[in-house]
Amino acid sequence: DSPLVSVLVLNYNGLVHLPECLESLKKQTYPNYQVALVDNASTDESVVYVRRNFPEVSIVQSSKNTGTAGGFNFGAKYAEGKYMLLLANDIEAKPNLIEELVGKIQEDENIAICTGKMMRFDKRDVIDYNGFKIDLFAFPYAPGHNEKDQGQGQELVDVVPTGTLLLIKKDVFQEVGGFDDTYFTLGDEIDLWWRIRLLGYRSVIHHNA
After folding, report:
1. Which pLDDT tens digit goes with each residue over 46-83?
2. Do residues 68 and 188 lie in contact, with contact meaning Cβ atoms separated by under 8 Å?
3. pTM to 2 decimal places
4. Cβ contacts of residue 69 below 8 Å, gap of 6+?
5. Which of 25, 116, 143, 177 could form a disulfide with 209 if both were Cys (CB 3.0 to 4.6 A apart)?
6. CA 39 to CA 62: how far, in whole Å?
């Protein structure tokens, strides 16, 4: 079962990151996905570059920069897949990223969100993100952040996702009304997670993705 995945790469003046990001998405092993650049009114040559070098990538252009929350909401209107993979433009995806995330989210019908472990771009053996947790005072923290990867955190399964890399069921995203635009950026994914969690859905991390 390989349902369509709509990959939304959010971009604002990120030309320097796009070659590696989009090249890595071309190499995905998953057989059924489409990629769209969601451009937040960039003033660099991002859109021109993608049109010339990645003609298979759809381009969705906003007339203004609405941050991560508004940008992904805007892009979601054009997503056709059962799942949406929301990505920052500075992600270099492993070839099996989509395949692994889809496989994980399909393990349990109550899973609405699946994220993956991310490593530092400049230090590939150092953890950048291995799942967020929420402390007693509702403050998010990231176990393993900036630590050398030694397999720690494998016990973390149900976590708060990061908007940098987030696979989500489109129907659940629509059910909760998407992101809250008033967050603009930072904290928007935590708010989304909280509202989805209140509906009884799970958000998990797949450490092999």
Report:
1. 999 999 999 999 999 999 999 999 999 999 999 999 99
2. yes
3. 0.94
4. 179, 180, 181, 182, 183, 184, 185, 188
5. 116
6. 6
Q: What pLDDT is attached to residue 136?
A: 83
Rounded to whole angstroms, what are the CA distances from 45 to 13, 41, 51, 53, 65?
A: 8, 11, 10, 12, 15
CA angle (25 as vertex; 20, 27 as ends), nearest 5: 100
> How many residues does the structure list for the chain?
209
Q: Residue 13's closest CA among 32, 40, 36? A: 40
Q: Does residue 117 contact residue 127 with C-beta atoms inside 8 Å?
A: yes
CA distance 205 to 157: 5
Q: In angstroms, rounded to a whole number, what is the distance separating the alpha carbons of residues 46 and 51?
A: 9
Categorise residue 130: left if φ over 0, alpha if ψ from -120 to 50, beta otherwise: alpha
User: What does the block give as tokens for 17?
Assistant: 């990151």
Residue 207, SS3?
Answer: coil
- Residue type for 42, please? S
Report whether pLDDT(156) > 90.
no
90 touches 196 (CB < 8 A): no
Q: Pseudo-torsion of CA 47, 48, 52, 57, nearest 10°?
A: 10
Report pLDDT for 43.
96
